[in-house]
Write a structure and sequence with these properties.
Number of domains: 1
Radius of gyration: 21 Å
Structural class: mainly beta
Number of helices: 4
Distance between the termini: 12 Å
């Protein structure tokens, strides 16, 4: 059950101040680490008393709350930057009146794997176009949300992870549900809370009965959790999540998870997670203010990527170049239809449509945490 909370509810619950809190103190000039940098009393008075924050505050909180993603020890389909994958894709105008991002090289079969589908594999030598796993970014969006008409009183930080390919699951001697392009995400919700020590208002995840502070997405669903219910990297407030082998569905713990049954519910689709390779997303984080449509650094400072523009169904919006305009679906169209069940009425595809991108996910400006 998703909990809807207002600013006044936060005060009534008397929530503890935990998590990604910025402590007010003199500037720490001995450290240039943006994660530990603190704001001045003047900044605190100027911004937080008006329930607004400056970009430096946003950047710090986005880095502090960024997750560690454990990739599976047998992973073959690694993350990459959006820009790196653009070298292998092109925009195509399709009959649904939207721009799709499809592979330049044709797939011979629904289960075909192109070399770039492996992403920035740290164990693979990339020829021609370098791809370093240590430089793969996650994409963080600062999104102020109106709850119950009380104004912009909570902030959702949505962390998106991009993978060039999602490998499907094996069932009945074939692979179902693969797709080109894969977007996964984790959302951390920050509430305005008043410090018992200083009386100042600060943004932080809430730890309290019935209050959710993090949403972990897996495929087309997910789960909400309290901040204290998710493990953290020791000595930090970085939540730890686990990306499943091949499909990258995100879970809060290691293990095997059945998330769906197909073919008259006789075959299980199972995600497998473990502690293989740690992806510390705060080390290379592309940050954006979703409300003002501006980048906060380092690559997109002051600007907004075209792939985060809304595809309004206009064929005139750019051309084949992936950077020339918005993208609605981030992968090839479905193929490889297979029928099962009584009278062959159950239809499945070996390759399904590429997913919609972040801007079309429906996570924005909603009181529900997702």
């Amino acid at each position: 059950m998703k909990t809807r909370s207002t600013f006044f509810l936060m005060s009534a619950l008397g929530l503890l101040l935990v998590g990604c809190i910025t402590i007010v103190a003199p500037p720490d000039t001995s450290s240039d680490d943006p994660i530990t940098e603190v704001i001045t009393d003047a900044d605190e008075k100027k911004y937080t008393e008006k329930f607004q924050v400056n970009n430096r505050y946003k950047v710090r909180l986005m880095k502090k709350c960024a997750p560690r993603v454990w990739l599976h020890s047998d992973e073959k389909y690694w993350p990459s930057s959006v820009e790196w994958s653009f070298n292998f894709t092109q925009r195509v105008w399709r009959k649904d009146n939207h721009w799709w991002l499809v592979t330049r090289q044709k797939l011979k079969k629904p289960s075909s794997v192109l070399p770039y589908f492996h992403g920035c594999d740290p164990n693979q030598q990339h020829t021609g176009i370098p791809c370093n796993f240590d430089e793969v970014p996650a994409y963080a969006f600062w999104n102020e949300v109106d709850i119950a008409g009380e104004g912009k009183n909570v902030v959702d930080i949505v962390y998106f992870f991009y993978y060039p390919y999602n490998r499907g699951k094996k069932a009945v001697n074939t692979i179902f549900g693969s797709h080109v392009g894969d977007w996964e995400h984790v959302t951390v919700r920050l509430y305005w809370q008043q410090s018992n020590k200083t009386g100042k208002w600060l943004l932080a995840p809430a730890q309290g009965a019935g209050t959710v502070s993090i949403y972990i997405a897996a495929h087309d669903f997910g789960g909400t959790n309290g901040w204290n219910e998710v493990p953290k990297v020791r000595g930090t407030e970085h939540p730890i999540v686990y990306a499943a082998w091949g499909s990258h569905g995100t879970w809060k713990e290691a293990g095997n998870f059945t998330y769906k049954k197909i073919i008259m519910k006789t075959k299980k689709l199972i995600d497998r997670t473990n502690e293989g390779t740690a992806w510390d997303t705060w080390k290379n984080l592309e940050m954006f203010d979703y409300n003002s449509k501006k980048g906060l650094g380092p690559t997109w400072r002051g600007s907004w990527p075209t792939w985060m523009e809304k595809d309004n169904g206009s064929q005139a919006m750019g051309g084949q170049d992936p950077t020339s305009g918005p993208v609605y679906r981030w992968g090839n169209p479905k193929s490889g239809k297979v029928r099962y069940g009584l009278k062959k009425k159950s239809v499945y595809y070996r390759l399904v449509d590429g997913p919609v991108g972040p801007v079309d996910k429906g996570y924005w400006n909603t009181p529900d945490l997702d």
